[in-house]
Structure formats: C-alpha cells, structure tokens
Amino acid sequence: MTATTTTRRAHGATQGDATPTASGRGRAPRSGWGGLGWTVAVALPLAFLLVFFAYPVATMVGRGFVVDGRLDLSGFADVFGRPRTWRIIGQTLAQAGVATTVSVLLGVPGAYVLHRHRFPGRAAVRALVTVPFVLPTVVVGVAFRSLLVEGGPLGFLHLDGTFVAIVAALVFFNYAVVVRGVGGLWERLDPRAEQAARALGATPWRAFRTVTLPALTPAIASAASLAFLFCATAFGTVLVLGGLRFGTVETEIWVQTTQFLDLRAAAVLSVVQLVVVGAALTVAGRARGRRERALHLAEPELVVRPLRLRRPAGTPRHDGHALLLAATGVTALVVVLLALPLVNLVVRSLRVGDGWGLDHYRALGTVGGGVTVTVWQAALTSLRTAVDATVLALVVGGLVALVVSRRPRRPAARRAVAGLDALFMLPLGVSAVTVGFGFLLAMHEPLGLPLDLRRSPLLVPVAQAVVAVPLVVRTVLPVLRAIDPRLREAAATLGAAPGRVLRTVDLALAARSIGLAAGFAFAASLGEFGATSFLARPENPTLPVVVFRLIGRPGPESYGMALAASVVLAALTAAVVALCERLRRTGDGGEW
C-alpha cells in the first residue's frame, strides 16, 4: 500500500466513519495521548534540561558574578577592558566566518551531486562525508597535525599552528552540515519549476540561479547558521592546532578556568558565547521555519528521475552537463581532501622509526606516564558510556520531537512549542567547558540535597546526553512533522487507544529516523571531549581523554600511541556512521 493510498483511506475514514454524537453530526475523535501523557512528555525533558544543563551553567556563571553574596557585574568592564579579550573574540568570529563561507561554497555543489544524482558507491561517499562531523575533535586535531607537521605529507606548506590550518579543520568538520542540510531538502524539491524554466529557454545556470537557489535559500541559511555555531564553539581541534596563539572564546574559557582559576572572566566569556549562540540559533530557526512553510516537496521518484522537456524551436541549446561536471569535479576534490587526513593518520600510525610495523598498536595494551589505563580499557569505557548516553538522549530527545512535531491551533501554544524547540538546541552551542566545570560545581549537594554526585558513574553519560539530545531532535522531528495527521485521526476513529495510535502511527513511521538518531547520538557521545575532560575519573577515562593525554606526553612512542588510539576511535565512529547511512533512505535524516 502506498503512502498516498494510506492517506486517502485515512481521509475517507475521518470523513465518512466518524463516531456519531448525540446531535447526530459526525465528530473525529481526538488522537494522541491524554492530558497526563502530554504533561509527562513536556515535563520530563524540561526537568532534564533544568537539572543537567541550566542549573550547572547557571552555577558556573553565578560563581563569576556573585561576590560575598551580592551580584557584581564589574567583571564585564574588567574583561572587556583587556586587549586579549577583543583579540580572542575577533579570532573566534574570523575563524568561524571564513570556515562557514568556505563550507557553504563547497557544500552546495556536494549537496547537488550526492542528493540529486544516483551513482555506484553513493552511500559510501555519503558516509565518508559524514564521518568528519561526528569524529572526536581531538582525533581531527591529531590527524591535521600529522598531516601538516614538519616531515608530514604537507609539511612543506608550513601551515602547522596557523590560521589556515584551523580553518581547514573547521571546514573538514562542517562540510557535512551543509551537504546534509541543503541536500536533504534538495532531493525532495519539486523539479518541475526548474524544468519549466529550462523548457522556456533558460540556461542550466540561469534556471538554478533564478528558480532553485531561491527555493534553497532557507536551507542554506539554516545550514550556514549551524556551521557558524559549530565553528564558533569548536574546542578540541582549536586547542590541538592553534594552542594559545589562535585561541577562541571556547578555548579561552578553558584557559581562564583551569590555568588562571579566573571564574569571573570565564563567566563573562560564557555570556558572550551564549549571545552569539542565541543569535545563530535564532537565524537557523527562522530559516528552518521558512523552509518548512514555503517549499513544495515532491515524491523522491520525481527527483531522481526528472522529466526531460523539449526546448522550444529556435531556442539555442545549452548543455547542462557542464554544470554537473563542475559540481562533480569540486565534490570529488573535496572528498579526496576529506579522506587525506584520515588516510595519513592511518599511515603515520604504522610508521615505526625508519620502518613500518604494528608496534604502536601493540603498545595500546600498556600503561605508563600520565595514562593509568590501557587504550583498550578506555575504549570499553567509552562504548559503555556512549550506550548510556544514547539511551538517555533518545528518551529525552524523542519526547521533545514528539511534542514539537504537533501543530496546535492557538498562537500561544504554537509559540510555546517553538520555544521548547529552541531551548533544546542551546546545548549545541554553549561551551562544553562551561557545562563540564558547572557539573563539578553544581553536583556537590545539588539543589541543597545531601548528595555528592561528582563521583557518580552516570555523570559523564548524562553530560554527553545533554550534547546529543539536539541531534536526536533534529533527526527525528522532520519525519514526525511529515506524518499526515489524518492517519492518527483514522486510527483513533477505528477504535485505537491513544497509546496504540502513538505506537502504530508515529513510532512505526519514524522507526528508521529513530535508528538514525541513535547512531548519531552514539557517535557524538563516543567522541565528546570538552565536558568529559572535566568529569572523567582518572581511573575511568574515555578514549578521547586518553588520546589528549598521550599527545601531551613527550617522546615519539607516546605520539605514535596517540596516532594509533586516534585510528581506533576514528574506526569506531566510522563504523557507526556507515551503519546509520544504511538505515537512511531518501528524505529521512532530518537536518543531518
């Protein structure tokens, strides 16, 4: 049975089989949960966000602004009076702005090739493009350092520790954000408007510029806003590649917190970052809303097999293959550049002195120096932690997506739903350092309770779940919003209880996207470093923490172990992403 047939039958059921009322008129019964169910669906995620995000962040910021029990905002004047602060803010905006621009310029052709055309190996290329987005930031920093350092394949360029190296690494991360954000819409865009322009004599470039590009503008704006947000809040990559010379607001919060113990400066910078994040999320939200309201989506078959219209007699022939060839060439070059750091990482991990071998991988089973566990033990800890974080993120994010997917009729209710959506995007942009250090400050007797949760093994997965929840929401929400409400009404009309309607309609149609969300949440949790670096116990560090410790140890043996451990972590992440890509089908996957 096709989706169209199902929708028609559902529509017929709601129109013709409605339960009669006492007045003799038909009425479609209300579908969905009862009032208690929806209350729980809203209250549980809000409580999670309040306790494990808002409370730690407020505690961290409050320590910087409360002196002797009184509010003291003089820190703003002090911090903004430092030339260092303005240099850090300028570097953050410059790095994020340049990296976002390059990501969009390269990502739009990639979206066209990977989402509008079918070719052998497309799924593998999509997975390769997505891997950098979920790779641990520490791994990316190590991969680029091994590529650019003196003696590396690109060492002759002398880019190690430069602005260009940081921008390249940020583009490496965020290329997939643009490709998926724009391509996910492009593959569902009705092609007939562009075909009509071509039939009237427009060149392929003009048809794209005047018809397709305006339709894609909301998606491009949304992807660019998210890319800017991720670039402005990058931590591990900038810390490894730029150090203190090219620090950003994110790394400066870490420096002020851990090295100078200046919580007031860290609090001021956290507020600055929150303002930037709020602006980026506002732009992304509005662009996403315009995209959902204004664009007419087509069946996937119309996209992959577009109609071939004849050009009018006398119209000069403009071959569209040149546009496709140019986009394919750019995409192929970008894919090679994306693969280069990963391939070099593997090659360098096998380099032992003047020869080759597996010595660095054998050393992963040993301990020493600043590392108290083996890499394999840390990998097992990371896997267990990621499983716990994924379960939490799916429960909380799934409930948020379910609530936000509804379209209430009252304006006040619609604004409340939109506000809930925006609230759960904040963890993507707020400093992971602020969250992690806030956990240390807030989880000692939290909310006045006689408990010390800082030693709890659940603290790390909870912190990772806070970061993963927005990914779950953005992956599942578009699929739930695309469900025709008449399907729920038909199921309720035929006697299904609210829980059964939810199970047989919403969960059944969103099952693949939920699996996709679980994969992305697992990969993101596996590589989370910012908050975990504060919370992981010395006897139970995660794999990204161990990699960072190995980098800080002197000697080629430690560096070789760091390379090998990074390969292990990258392989685990790539395997998860490849599985996600197999779960994905055309039009699924939301914004990722």
TrEMBL record:
Location, primary (coarse class): membrane
One annotated Gene Ontology cellular component of this protein: plasma membrane
InterPro entries documented for this protein: MetI-like, MetI-like_sf
GO biological-process terms attached to the record: transmembrane transport
Entry's transmembrane regions: 35-55, 93-114, 123-144, 156-178, 215-243, 263-284, 320-343, 386-404, 416-442, 462-483, 504-526, 559-580
Subcellular location: Cell inner membrane; Cell membrane
Alphabetical list of Gene3D superfamilies matching this protein: MetI-like (1.10.3720.10)
Membrane topology category: Multi-pass membrane protein
UniProt keyword terms in alphabetical order: Cell inner membrane, Cell membrane, Membrane, Transmembrane, Transmembrane helix, Transport
Domain of life: Bacteria
Domain ABC transmembrane type-1: 89-282, 379-580
Annotated stretches, region: Disordered: 1-28
PANTHER family found in the cross-reference section: INNER MEMBRANE ABC TRANSPORTER PERMEASE PROTEIN YDCV
Similarity annotation: Belongs to the binding-protein-dependent transport system permease family.
Protein name according to UniProt: Binding-protein-dependent transport systems inner membrane component
Protein species of origin: Cellulomonas gilvus (strain ATCC 13127 / NRRL B-14078)
